[in-house]
Amino acid sequence: MSMNREGRGATAPEIHEVHQDHKTFTGNRALRIEEALLFEIGRPEVTGVDLPEPPKVAKRLGRHERKAPINLPGLAEPEAVRHYVRLSRHNYSIDNGIFPLGSCTMKHNPRLNEKMARLPGFGDVHPLQPQSTVPGAIELISELSRWLIELTGMQAVAMSPKAGAHGELCGMMAIKAALEARGEEHRKVVLVPDSAHGTNPATAALIGFEVKPVPARADGTVDPEEVRKRVGPDVAAIMLTNPNTCGLFERDVVEIAKAIHDAGAYFYADGANFNAIVGKAKVGDLGVDAMHINLHKTFSTPHGGGGPGAGPVVLSERLAAYAPRPLVVSDGGNVALLEHAEGGAAESLGRMTAFHGQMGMYVRALSYMLSHGADGLRQASEDAVLNANYIRACLQDLYSAPAGDRPCMHEILFDDSFLEGTGITTLDIAKAMIDEGFHPMTVYFPLVVHGAMLIEPTESESRASLDFFIAAMRDLAMAAKAGDTARFKEAPRYAPRRRLDETRAARQPKLRWQAPEPMAAEAAE
């Protein structure tokens, strides 16, 4: 900390404000390097590796053969490394600070999990290896399956889906297979609440179902009476998120499940928010027939995971027989992958993906489970809910919560009514958060709330971290109400790039780099 003219300690923002307009010869600002695009600095003749000249082969592409050079930028190895290291410094991550994206559960990824995932036999396993060479990997999948079934109170689990939306597809395909087995192909309607994730109706429509919305109550929850009005002999299922995308537990979930089952339909639950109820409630006891689980949200495997994700789907007794192959089965204490439509997999809906899943994601998830234990997983859920309610309690006097003073689950939802008359929008708040060193919360979702701001701190954050975030959010709200419009409309000022025209970028995207037109003077020469 340096001293300012008045002898007080100058904070980092004050120092930055003094020097922000200083121009440097290079365009760089200390460690913030200003770099040209790769297409501008690359040379086709340069490469980081030496490859032999490829042999001549017969042309097989016909009219699809390239007629012009591919024009990919060539870089020496140091140039490529420097480029990606510099880009990495512009990324915000959970390793940098709180990542308050609502509905995304951006929790800490323990390094122990990474160490386990790199162990020989896990990190180097290949999907085409004979089963006899990977018994440990198969046994790990079996043990992870056991934990998922126990935590959800369900009958079976399909491990092969690669992510949340793929898991949704798996669950809905299992429901479709069950209906076909019952001779009820006429059931074509899927009920989807207005507060559902966007992938829910998309998944249902993808496999031929007709989507009908279910309106939410004023507090964002689903009314069983609205469900009863819509069930009938043509309804196949309901797709419900619980806790829902407003951060609230669907208190009438058992009654909703009964209405669905009485009509002969199935209950699909979106498990994106499972992190709020692990160890507290078993979805099987709530009447759920299928639910996908995002291992990258609930069990700390990283988002993306360096490749395909993992979205296991737990199934009730009513749907267990239709789980996709391959299945992990136990025979006299030995576990194996059942890959053909025989025995316990005779009614399987078939194969959804070439292989069984992403091994690294499985190892990370089981490491997280074993290191926490059942009581630790329950505490993680409790802490996630506690942290969200702490933020709610500390901000509700300045930010407007559509659910009022009602406690939330793992995330807190605010709307933009507190900004009325200020000329400032939810997007402006989000951009100003970037200047303050935070990744913005989820904005404009769920769609049932105008100007939504959805904050999910997860259990990873300490009291000090939450207090710092809350103080910054309170300062933004007070500045907005005080009329400091420039602070918001000009944000972000300190990011590597200033605010973009996001509407134009979405409607007129430039997907290819093109060399700029030569300037008039250059053209004259």
From TrEMBL:
One of its GO terms (cellular component) is cytosol. It catalyses: N(6)-[(R)-lipoyl]-L-lysyl-[glycine-cleavage complex H protein] + glycine + H(+) = N(6)-[(R)-S(8)-aminomethyldihydrolipoyl]-L-lysyl-[glycine-cleavage complex H protein] + CO2. Pfam families: Aminotran_5, GcvP2_C. GO terms for molecular function: glycine binding; glycine dehydrogenase (decarboxylating) activity; pyridoxal phosphate binding. Residues 1-23, 492-525 are annotated as: Disordered. GO terms for biological process: glycine decarboxylation via glycine cleavage system. Its EC number is 1.4.4.2. Keywords: Oxidoreductase, Pyridoxal phosphate. Residues 492-505 have a biased composition (Basic and acidic residues). Residues 178-304 form the Aminotransferase class V domain. Residues 380-479 form the Glycine dehydrogenase C-terminal domain. Residues 515-525 have a biased composition (Low complexity). The glycine cleavage system catalyzes the degradation of glycine. The P protein binds the alpha-amino group of glycine through its pyridoxal phosphate cofactor; CO(2) is released and the remaining methylamine moiety is then transferred to the lipoamide cofactor of the H protein. This is glycine dehydrogenase (aminomethyl-transferring). It comes from Agaricicola taiwanensis. The gene is gcvPB.
